[in-house]
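Here we describe the complex-level prediction in full. Unlike the single-chain runs in Section 2.1, the two entities below were treated as one system.
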Amino acid sequence: MRYGETGFDLEIDLSRGGIDRVASDPELTRLFLGGLGTNAKILWDRVPPETEPFSEDNLLIFGTGLLCGTPAPGCNRTVVSTISPQTRLMAYSMMGGFWAPELKYAGFDRVIIRGRSPELVYLWIHNDKVEIRDASHLRGLGAIESAERLRKELKEPNAQVASIGMAGENRVFYASIEQGRSSASRGGIGAVMGDKGLKAIVVRGTRDLNVARPAEFLDLCDGVLKYIKHREENPIQGVPPILAGLGSPQEMRIVDEQWHTTSFMWGNSRTRRKDFWTHEIEEKWRETQENVRTRLISCYNCPMKCGATISVPGLPTYMMKCYSKLTYTMAAFSDLDFGFRIAQRATEYGVDGFSAPQVMAFALELLEAGILTDEDFPGMPPDVEGRFFWLLDRIVRREGIGDALADGTYWAARRIGKGAEAYDHNTIKKHEQLPLKLGMLNPVYYLMYSTGEKINITQIEGQFPQEPFATREAREEFVKDWIQVPDDKFKKYYVDWEPRGEMSNPYYPTVEASCDIVDWMEKMHYVDDALGMCAGLSSFPLKPPYHIHNYPDFISAATGMDFDKDALWQSATRTRTLIRAFNVRRGMRRSDDRPPDDHWKKRFPDLEAQLLDGYYKLKGFNRDGIPTLESLHALGLDDVAEDLEQRGIYRHGQS
Amino acid sequence: MAKARKIVKSVTIVADKCNGCRACEVICSAFHAAPRYSSNNPARSRIRIVREPLRDIYLPVYAGEYTQSECTGRDKYIIDGKEYSECDFCRASCPSRDLFKEPDSGLPLKCDMCEDTPPLAKPKCVEWCLNDALIYEEREEEVDVEEVRLGDVEIGIESLIDKYGLQQVLDTVARRVKP
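The structure predicted for the assembly as a whole is:
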């Protein structure tokens, strides 16, 4: 009997209509835990580097985290992994919501999809009963609309649905997979689902999920709930309200957006509006937000309320979380009302809330610069809000200029040519980033932006404050109850960090300290993604309830496999290294590990090289960013080492 | 009539505060697993959230009595512009729906307020609802102790006696009894 997990995978071959229930190897759990870790291992084993994102050979894996479906609060993430059409590297976008636990209760840890269906289909999983069903009547329907329709047709109001909209069907490179209040949006995984002819996966599960040491596990859960209560009653002082509590940044609850609107860039990541936030704006935005927000809502088994039900008069109701209320607003230089309106349509179409607005702002810049002309935008309305709606409609249908834009800023710029490349100034590894352009290089963020395999800063950063508090006393106060640090040296790193002077950016934190800090932050994300834990209760906020000291107990009590801090750390390192190797095998190298040139005004090439060298060394990579044979062997990844060697990936003397 | 002291346990359901997370379902099914907490399965929970996010319906309902047959007419309620079926509020384990039945055997489930020895301070669902949508109250009430609890038939006969007098009822019953 397996504990914490079900021990079964569901293998679906859409080319042949194959459905298999396959027992998984418990050894994989010991090595990779589950979620992202196990997804990465399956992709390594089964998707060779020549595989095109849009091909029958590409896999699309819906993995649940190891602890999903157990009573561990906030553990509900589905990790979707495949080859991204946009970056052409491994994509692993994640979503909260209710889908992963439901799959566990149906008796599966993951759904592995291969092949391509000639007709549009959906997958219906009801415990042991699994069917591939016709979805031709859903073609062109919105993602949320489709989910509602399927629940009704199946007479299963409690089924959970992951679905794509028109963007996924038409293989938009930044199409998302939507699931009610959550979505897996980054890397264009919705386009891969569309390429496979799969409109939706509907799940209903009514079976038990076991844990190995029940009383111990429950005590741990109770402890986490108690800590969440404590943290909610004691927000962190001295940081913007949006960063003071737990969960995703509380965008749906909080109206005060001074920090985002005055520090982040507007348009195509172009203009900073330091004076934007006024009392008048705050009042207007408060009215907008409170008028459309029906209720603050959560994901499965989580006391937080990071999402909201949004009902804009005259539009269908939808659900929103976190930052997408601002991405369209700011890309269009518009207001919050517009943000809520267009997000409704974007959610039904199923597009990524970071990439889509930026691509549209990029298109309008090209028009202004004369690289694109009015002929490229026939019938486009004159007002900016109307233009965004017009562009969105064309992108998801790949109509006219929408076809190039549907490939994202990097590829669109190259298809359009005529100097459009210069306007693609905010992508890393071909992927749109948060619109931020800053002054002084921050060494920790330099490393995260450069090397983060997720290529999305909010899923790499966390735990360590983004800036030092003004005084040493305040910093000393902060570290007093900082129980989450893996080692006391992190307290010293923070206390010594000054806003100005010698002990400030870019030379402090030092290269060594920066590498340590990044290592801690990103590793906690790898742990969360394997367990299915929301970063909002772990790796993202300051002083979270889950951390490296209580996680091993959770895993041990749930699975019955004994894990300690070192074993957990090693497992996260193994997954991180394997994903690196996977991407290296697809051609990624040191030259790809770089933030946008204009991310900071003040750059320090020598220091940046030292940082990258230091990071690679700590990670067991060579100077070209390739995992060394020695580090691969130490992690038990002997097959990976052999493969990289056989493919001649190591240049002479570089292994 | 005799009086006695009795502990009345109740949960006030503040549906407006429910965030729809279903932690109550998780912990209820875990508490009632055997051995305790060894598994969980919201389909076995004795509290269920009637949940339709797009219509903003979030209604925690506790499992009550088992009923053999479903209601005939079912009314609709419109509250704050939202339409509810009478069933949405109903605690019964009833043939008209899957709610409050063991998913395997179909046997009815009923909330027992997490009775345990030693007693818990409050039911687990209440403890796990950090949003205060479930508020537990215990109060001591003085209740009438009825010597005989009347059944439906007895209530009916009593009303006949009130109307026609005891003798006429006895005579009628005697005539009706077939030898």
